[in-house]
Write a structure and sequence with these properties.
Distance between the termini: 27 Å
Order of helices and strands: EHEHEEHEHEHH
Radius of gyration: 19 Å
CATH topology of the largest domain: Rossmann fold
Shape: globular
Number of domains: 2
CATH architecture of the largest domain: 3-Layer(aba) Sandwich
GO molecular function: oxidoreductase activity, acting on the CH-OH group of donors, NAD or NADP as acceptor; quinone binding
Largest sheet: 6 strands, mixed
Protein name: 3-oxoacyl-[acyl-carrier-protein] reductase
Structural class: alpha/beta
CATH superfamily of the largest domain: NAD(P)-binding Rossmann-like Domain
Keywords: Oxidoreductase
InterPro entries: NAD(P)-bd_dom_sf, SDR_fam
Strand order of the largest sheet: 3-4-2-1-5-6
CATH class of the largest domain: Alpha Beta
Number of strands: 6
Helix content: 25-40%
Pfam family, one: adh_short
Length: 245
């Protein structure tokens, strides 16, 4: 049995999609055959990125609702394609109607439900705490932490109503600064530390999985470590979620 779930035909929602990390993830996911929905604040950047993504090769998922998601010009009504929607994930400006549209039912057999959520939205402003304005601090916490919390909550609520054959995944982007302090990073580091703390909370009863890892699952992790040159001196907790409890 293969340990890795294929991304082909899985619906992946990426926040902060046109940023460096978000755009790289979106491009890689699309290249692996995923149906990608991009979220971000600037429509022109979302549109440009959406047009550059490798085309969606599979028609097993339905397209997003035209009323709530703005699709690439190459979209055809009879075939799903990558889409984008303008949205600010920060605490005081989220629009759940946009998210509801991505999960709406489009046919009797298939839905546009989200299989993978990547919380890549984030901002970085570095200055000493005594020089940080209340507005800057709130902006950092709202975007980095609260946006991640609310998007993850939205996803977690819907994970309980999923089809049994479609596993869901939430990926959060934190920072080394959350655990290793540095001058001028206190508010940013605090927002990222909050993400780590939230990510360690089990969202389902099956975390931890309650079984030993299979050799093929360890092998998949070994392939990642061998291929990723930035995973230098990397300690990977491959334990089915046990270290989170």
């Amino acid at each position: 049995m293969a340990a890795l779930l294929p991304l082909r035909a899985r619906h992946c929602l990426i926040t902060g999609a046109y940023g460096g990390i978000g755009a790289a993830i979106a491009t890689r996911f699309a290249a692996e055959g995923a149906l990608v929905t991009l979220l971000g604040r600037k429509e022109d950047k979302l549109r440009d990125l959406c047009a550059r993504l490798p085309p969606f090769p599979d028609s097993r998922l339905a397209p997003l609702s035209a009323a709530t998601a703005i699709s690439s010009p190459r979209v055809r009504e009879d075939k799903p394609a990558h889409s984008y929607a303008v949205m600010d994930v920060s605490a005081d400006s989220r629009d759940d109607a946009v998210l509801d549209g991505t999960c709406s039912i489009h046919s009797q057999q298939r839905t546009g439900q989200i299989d993978v959520l990547v919380n890549a939205a984030g901002i970085a402003q570095f200055q000493l705490l005594q020089n940080t304005s209340s507005r800057t601090a709130r902006e950092l916490v709202d975007t980095n932490l609260m946006g991640t919390i609310f998007m993850s909550r939205y996803m977690a609520q819907r994970m309980k109503r999923r089809r049994a054959d479609r596993d869901a995944c939430i990926i959060n982007i934190a920072s080394l600064l959350a655990e290793k302090g540095s001058p001028g990073t206190s508010v940013y580091a605090a927002s990222k530390a909050g993400i780590i703390a939230m990510s360690r909370e089990p969202l389902e009863k099956r975390i931890p999985l309650g079984r030993l890892g299979r050799p093929d699952e360890v092998a998949d992790a070994a392939v990642f470590l061998a291929q990723n040159t930035y995973a230098n001196n990397c300690i990977l907790n491959l334990d089915g979620g046990l270290s989170a409890v």
